């Protein structure tokens, strides 16, 4: 019997999605697929399905701190992934928590909207996240609509948003897919090197949990010791495959298939 696991532990602070398409379940599955162990700390409960989100409730500060501190005290955490926080108070709580662990690579997915368009936090939450958590992150992974909110540029291009956001964070991955282009442009920006663009084929349909999948896969690759540009490429390739194989489990968006069918066999 193995007493100590060799799998890196990734602490995930995010919301619970009862449809299983996004949120902490997406984090868990994507990290398992990378060969990591997910330690999920719930920040919020949501009422949502594969169509949209209708309500959410952010948990009390004390509950979130207690969950995260229990993991941090017990396990050798290799990376941290942030998802839905939902309130300015929760942003402040997480910033306070993580400021004591500057050595941990932090992947920040600034979740402000569900895939169906419903709000998972006001724009003011995004501004607080930009000021408090982006500076602690090794990389942030907004899609273009989220990047526009964070940069306060409603019609900004990815390049224009990146110019603003790199004042707050060291590295940035702005994902595409929200226009009608035949190929999706995923753009990596850094204070330290020239921008890079990865192209992928646009797939038919829309997807629930693709951003969570990407950010968690990226956190997993970093936890495994992969260098950042390579980890970004690995996470993008993995995410595209989960979308290619996605399933329609409800009446709305497709859910990425993050684990192979024979995973538990």
**What is the ordering of alpha helices and beta strands?**
EHEEHEHEHEHHEEEHH
| Biggest β-sheet strands, sense, barrel | 6 strands, mixed
Shape assignment? globular
Low-pLDDT parts are none
Mean pLDDT: 92
Query: According to CATH, what is the topology?
Result: UDP-N-acetylmuramoyl-L-alanine:D-glutamate ligase
Strand order of the largest sheet: 3-2-1-4-5-6
CATH H-tier superfamily: Ribokinase
The number of distinct helices, counting runs of at least 4 residues, comes to 8
Helix content: 25-40%
Strand share of the residues? 15-25%
- Named at the architecture level, the CATH assignment is 3-Layer(aba) Sandwich
Distance between the termini: 20 Å
SS elements, strand count: 9
Structural class, from helix and strand content?
alpha/beta
Roughly how many Å is the radius of gyration? 17 Å
CATH class: Alpha Beta
- Into how many domains do the coordinates divide? 1
